[in-house]
Amino acid sequence: MHFDTLALRATHQPDTTTGAVVPPIHLSTTYARNEANELPANYIYTRTNNPTREALEKALAVLEGGAIGMAFGSGQAATMTLLQALRPGDHVLVSTDAYFGTPALLEQVFHPWGLTYTRVDLSDLSAVQASIHENTRLIWCETPSNPRLTIQDLAAISEMAHAVGALCVCDNTWATPVIQRPLSIGCDVVMHSTTKYLSGHSDVLGGALIFKEDNDFTQRVRQIQGLSGAVPSPFDCWLVSRGIKTLSVRVRAQSATAQRIAEFLDGHPAVEIVHYPGLSHHPDRALIDRQMSGTGAMLSVRVKGGAAEALQFIGKLKLLIRATSLGGVESLIEHRASAEGPNSTSPVNLLRISVGLEHPDDLIDDLRQALDWIINPANKAA
Ligand SMILES: *Cc1c(COP(=O)(O)O)cnc(C)c1O
């Protein structure tokens, strides 16, 4: 079956008692036993398992082509739970260009707890090889990367990880399974912030892990999920399942608009460079064509000048919303350096754009008037 059909079918298990086409939301935290003290189904208590969460977890596994899916209360809760399955003394490799919170978790929570880690440019394979130690247990990829949209070679990195018995994890939040299937090219685990494209409407916080195999490590993560309880509410699970039904049409429409916006920005005299996998001059062109079946709806633009010009530009926008996060139906733009604060490694002239479902002409008109404004000599002194 094609991905669109899979996404719809995976989230539709008509209710067997009522026939309801849209699955109900099971809010009960506890499940009754019969006279013989047996549970009629496998449910006992919602922290450990819940039918609405289980439906989402099955859908997640189908989307990414994995054996097991697990849902969490946020993307960070998913990352946290996976890292908790490692042991003090284990070593993790994480990209220099990664979602800000991932290395922050390693540094602020897991480093004091005994996990060691190295930040490395994962798009440089010889640097990756040189950073792998005997105790490396996990390589954390995120491609396209945040916020520079560099591409990491998932097949090659997985091979390097497996050579030392380590796992290769891919944060697939930006690409989504619509355009990138990491488990099919060697990765062992996929992570998602379902807050973003999977739910798709900026109204639910959630995370996911999908495992290629059901093995001891996978069961250890399952155990921690149930014990520590960083799980989503049934209503949030239902919302993510609903979002998944339209994932593929949203991502394809948003990507087409992103392509048009990237090409427009690329030719504008106020722009220094556009980072977008769909542009012919992207340095990882060949890898993109091999690894991805689309180019996504995230892009970054660096304006000529510094932080002042970048902030002036976004200050003039009327349609794009100045806000953090991504993957919703409304276009968002953010100055990452100010969002990340003093430890940020994001260039000060960089703005990250999450392209939504507005008409592309309206978005381009808005971007054009704001860029024209900052290079108009009459406004220079302002
Ligand atoms: C948002 C995001 C996260 C963190 O997810 P939360 O749901 O905010 O906890 C992790 N990775 C990427 C790429 C993200 O965009």
UniProtKB/TrEMBL annotation:
InterPro entries tied to this protein: Cys/Met-Metab_PyrdxlP-dep_enz, Cys_met_metab_PP, PyrdxlP-dep_Trfase, PyrdxlP-dep_Trfase_major, PyrdxlP-dep_Trfase_small
Signal peptide residue numbers: none
GO cellular component, one term: cytoplasm
UniProtKB keywords: Aminotransferase, Pyridoxal phosphate, Transferase
Keyword Transferase carried by entry: yes
Keyword Transferase: yes
Pfam family, one: Cys_Met_Meta_PP
Cofactor: pyridoxal 5'-phosphate
Gene Ontology molecular function, alphabetical: cystathionine gamma-lyase activity; cystathionine gamma-synthase activity; pyridoxal phosphate binding; transaminase activity
Any one GO BP annotation for this protein: cysteine biosynthetic process via cystathionine
PTM sites of type N6-(pyridoxal phosphate)lysine: K196
CDD domains noted in UniProt: CGS_like (cd00614)
Stated family: Belongs to the trans-sulfuration enzymes family.
PANTHER family per UniProt: CYSTATHIONINE GAMMA-LYASE, TRANS-SULFURATION ENZYME FAMILY MEMBER
Protein name: Aminotransferase class V-fold PLP-dependent enzyme
